[in-house]
TrEMBL record:
The chain crosses the membrane at residues 27-46. Residues 55-66 have a biased composition (Low complexity). The keyword Lipoprotein applies. It holds the Pfam family Lipoprotein_Ltp. This is Ltp family lipoprotein. It comes from Anaerovorax odorimutans. Residues 49-79 are annotated as: Disordered. Gene3D superfamilies: Winged helix-like DNA-binding domain superfamily/Winged helix DNA-binding domain (1.10.10.10). Keywords: Lipoprotein, Membrane, Transmembrane, Transmembrane helix. Residues 81-127, 130-177 form the Putative host cell surface-exposed lipoprotein Ltp-like HTH region domain. The keyword Membrane applies.
Length: 222
């Protein structure tokens, strides 16, 4: 028998035993090989994907860091004069209850702080001040220390030669000004004209024998 015939024969011509198929020809071996090959390919593709993603993340982080650094480097520092003007404006606002216009004039005046217009404007723009409250505190000062009438106080608050508050700020101050109208002693010598009381005590509490001084246009409500 030829060698090729012996190889293809189902039994061994010498011993009669069955011939076994080669390992690489068996179906289960072929399936295992296919699975292994697919696994290797999938692993390679996954590795490339993760590697690409990691590279993109690294690139994005580097770009963000670079942009932040450029922003920090290009942002100009606040000049010392500007900071000083802001500190001075806060001091005037907290202790002297000045208006926005009053603060600006005081900061730039040659008889005041003599800051540059730019530094003064920076101070005004960055100052956290309640100008309505400042107007009210200033109105209380005029009432308690100078015994001024509400209308006179309003004029002083809004005057260009006075405090330079806005009309709304002055209205707020007068509306919330604590005027003790009921402390006024009602007497014929006070001279009521409608709802307007044309006299006012010197100290807020009077008796019949205490002298009075006139106060024009003072509104009275019992």
């Amino acid at each position: 028998m030829r060698a090729g015939d012996r190889k293809n024969a189902k039994t061994c011509p010498s011993c009669g035993a069955k011939n076994r198929k080669s390992l690489y020809k068996r179906w289960w071996f072929i399936v295992i090989v296919i699975i292994v090959v697919l696994g290797v390919i999938g692993s390679a593709l996954g590795g490339n994907s993760e590697s690409g993603q990691s590279a993109n993340e690294t690139q994005n982080a580097t770009q963000a860091e670079t942009q932040a650094k450029e922003t920090t480097e290009t942002k100009p520092a606040v000049p010392a004069e500007y900071k000083s003007a802001l500190n001075k404006a806060k001091l005037y606002s907290d202790t002297m209850y000045m208006s926005k216009a009053g603060l600006y004039d005081q900061l730039t005046s040659e008889y005041g702080e003599q800051f540059s217009a730019e530094a003064a404007q920076y101070a005004i723009d960055n100052l956290e001040a309640d100008y309505k409250k400042n107007a009210l505190e200033k109105a209380k000062l005029y009432q308690n220390e100078m015994s001024m009438s509400p209308e006179a106080i309003r004029d002083q608050l809004t005057s260009d030669y006075g405090e330079k508050f806005t009309e709304k700020e002055a209205d707020y101050a007068i509306k919330h000004l604590n005027v003790n109208r009921k402390s006024v002693f009602m007497d014929k010598s006070c001279g009521l004209e409608g709802s307007v009381l044309n006299c006012f005590p010197l100290n807020g509490q009077i008796s019949k024998n205490e002298p009075l001084r006139p106060l024009q246009g003072y509104p009275y409500s019992s």
